[in-house]
Amino acid sequence: MPARLPLCSMTQDATPLIPISLLTGFLGSGKTTLLNYLVAQPELKDTLVIINEFGEIGLDHLLVAHSQDEVVVEMSSGCLCCTIRGDLKKTLKDITWRFAEGGKRKFNRVIIETTGLASPIPILHTLMTDNFIASKYRLDGVIVTIDAVNGKQTLDNHIEAVQQAAVADRLLLTKSDLADAATLQDLQARLAQMNPGAQQILSQQGQVAPQKLLDAGLFKTAEKTPDVERWLNEESYAQPAHDHHGHGHHHGHDHDHDHEHKHEDVNRHDDHIRAFCFSFDHPIEPHLFDEWLSLLVGFKGQNILRIKGIVNLAGEEKPTVIHGVQHIFHPTVTLPAWPSEDRRTRIVFITKDIERATIERSFTAFMQTQAIEKEQKEQRAQGGGKQSGAW
């Protein structure tokens, strides 16, 4: 069983957390070309790039390099790069003081470039589970590069590439100028089925405006007010992903207030990835929500790739934001206010081989069981009172 969902509220304090962008993508998809372009841009002037030991090291703009275990380079733009052959957790702890001068940190943002041969999920777990890291950093977003020419074959043959695309916040389609229109459209449609909430961005020679990739998280760097609507992007899950690509399917705008879902196969694909937004209208007791979600991820955690949502907890005037990967959750965040008049609980699920109906049934069954147990407890209490009165 996983650790229980940490429903202790966590608000943004006066010291802003350092945003981390996780850059991944299968081998040959253009991560290094993209990094070479990004590190030369003024928007990344105060950024530290961390490349792990299996990364495709080949960055230009190198001014300084030393140490065989950790290669530290300073870019011409002022950006820093640290190539590690060790524990990412230790590196994230050390860089807060190693890359400081006069007591002031020399970077305000981190980009982690991961190996293309593995799922990014273990790194996401690292960012979520370490107390020190959680106190210093926040996940800004997952950026995934996908070769527009060979993307279909890569997704067909490598489950790691499917997982990368499924958990992405930004899908960067590289070499888009080299792909024919039909190939590109089919790939975009497939990715929209797998992960309708991720923004798709076309790129040529790795060139893309940094602002399109950064600030993908709940909080933007220059703003203290969270942008929940953009982050949750609920509208992407409210209608068939096919509709965005002109296939002529019926547009379903039902937000499923009564847990009725007319399009169970909307986001189904051979990749076995399901993406949907589950919602319910009424506030829920915090301990019940905790117990339900803990049971769900306890039984299905390995196949729940990502969860993010805004929750209406009974007794709380302000909404609570949750974000999890498999059975691991960030500490929850209490927002200063509801982003709109909509007070429904809305939770986006990206899963592998788990249908929306399964989530709905688990919630309905759990709540019915709780209601029966509560009624039985009340009946026992009333019966005990009558009996004592008779005596």
The SSE string, one letter per element, is EHEEEHEEEHHEHHEHEHHEHEEEEEH
The computed structural class is: alpha/beta
**Order of neighbouring strands in the sheet with most strands:** 3-4-2-7-1-8-9-10
Q: Assembly state here?
A: single chain
Count of helical regions? 11
**Which stretches of 5+ consecutive residues score pLDDT under 50?**
6-12, 61-71, 241-269, 387-391
Query: What's the shape?
Result: globular
* CATH fold call of the largest domain: Rossmann fold
How would you explain this protein's 3D organization?
By secondary structure, this protein is of the alpha/beta class. It folds into 2 domains: 18-213, P-loop containing nucleotide triphosphate hydrolases (Rossmann fold, 3-Layer(aba) Sandwich); 266-374, Hypothetical Protein Yjia, Chain: A,domain 2 (2-Layer Sandwich). It is built from 11 helices and 16 strands. The chain has helices at residues 31-38, 88-98, 121-129, 131-136, 151-157, 159-166, 181-194, 210-213, 228-232, 286-300, 356-390; strands spanning 18-25, 47-51, 71-74, 80-83, 100-101, 104-105, 109-113, 137-147, 170-174, 199-202, 273-280, 304-311, 320-325, 328-329, 333-334, 345-352. The strands form 3 sheets. Strands 3-4-2-7-1-8-9-10 form an 8-stranded mixed beta sheet. Strands 11, 12, 13, 14, 15 and 16 form a 6-stranded antiparallel beta sheet that branches. Strands 5-6 form a two-stranded antiparallel sheet. The protein is globular, with a radius of gyration of 23 Å.
